[in-house]
């Protein structure tokens, strides 16, 4: 399993995927820092950390993070499908279980990288601007953990789609189709019924409140159920 993961990391090094994730992740932060500076200049004296967060998080969780999830899982599966790579790998002493888990782990790790980078940069910028408090750090970090946990269900569905369809346009297209309704539902009372809206819905949570815990629980269950289904489907599938 370790050797399979090493191969995955080598593929990532030779691709531009990590660089793309980093650049896209940082994009909404420019808006947050810009608005925070403008508020400081007009004398409104905002909490710098929370101001940067408030003016960048919606763009990140509504558009950027879902896009990263959709594209990441599509691309890491695409790596193996070019020129029959999947079939070639399985001729080596590598089981389908190892391949499945290595792809899933790699995808989840890349999403974790994006979320970690986003919140780390927010904290660093706020620290440099002397606008940071212990209370605000704990609140921001708890939201970061919540966003990661509620995104697990989305990740599982995208991984399943990327496993199931060889044509990369199918998981990409379906992923964005599933995402569009979240623009309307993330702030509505029906958000609990649509897991794709969870990443934006937890933005305004006060730590791990009741709604956050419900969304996290549902997302983890979706992650487990979909990946178990995906594994058995992949294990039975003939790789041509």
Automatic annotation (TrEMBL):
The keyword Kinase does not apply. The keyword Cytoplasm does not apply. The chain crosses the membrane at residues 12-30, 57-79, 100-128, 140-161, 168-186, 213-234. Pfam families: ABC2_membrane_4. It comes from the Bacteria. Keywords: Membrane, Transmembrane, Transmembrane helix. PANTHER family: INTEGRAL MEMBRANE PROTEIN-RELATED (PTHR37305), MEMBRANE PROTEIN (PTHR37305:SF1). This is ABC transporter permease. The lineage of its organism: Bacteria, Bacillati, Bacillota, Clostridia, Eubacteriales.
């Amino acid at each position: 399993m370790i050797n399979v993961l090493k191969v995955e990391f080598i593929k990532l090094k030779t691709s531009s995927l990590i660089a793309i994730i980093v650049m896209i992740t940082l994009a909404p932060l420019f808006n947050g820092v810009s608005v925070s500076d403008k508020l400081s200049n007009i004398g409104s004296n905002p909490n710098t950390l929370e101001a940067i967060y408030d003016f960048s998080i919606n763009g990140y969780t509504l558009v950027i993070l879902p896009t990263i999830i959709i594209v990441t899982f599509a691309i890491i599966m695409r790596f193996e499908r070019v020129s029959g790579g999947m079939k070639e790998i399985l001729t080596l002493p590598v089981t389908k279980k190892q391949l499945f888990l290595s792809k899933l782990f790699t995808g989840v790790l890349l999403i974790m990288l994006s979320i970690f980078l986003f919140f780390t940069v927010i904290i660093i910028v706020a620290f440099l601007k002397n606008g940071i408090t212990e209370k605000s750090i704990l609140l921001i970090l708890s939201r970061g953990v919540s966003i990661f946990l509620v995104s697990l269900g989305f990740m599982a569905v995208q991984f399943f789609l990327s496993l199931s369809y060889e044509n990369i346009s199918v998981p990409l297209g379906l992923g964005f189709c599933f995402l569009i309704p979240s623009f309307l539902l993330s702030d509505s009372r029906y958000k609990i019924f649509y897991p794709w809206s969870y990443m934006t819905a937890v933005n305004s949570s006060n730590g791990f409140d009741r709604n956050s815990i419900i969304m996290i629980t549902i997302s983890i269950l979706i992650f487990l159920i979909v990946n178990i289904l995906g594994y058995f489907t992949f294990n039975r599938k003939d790789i041509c």
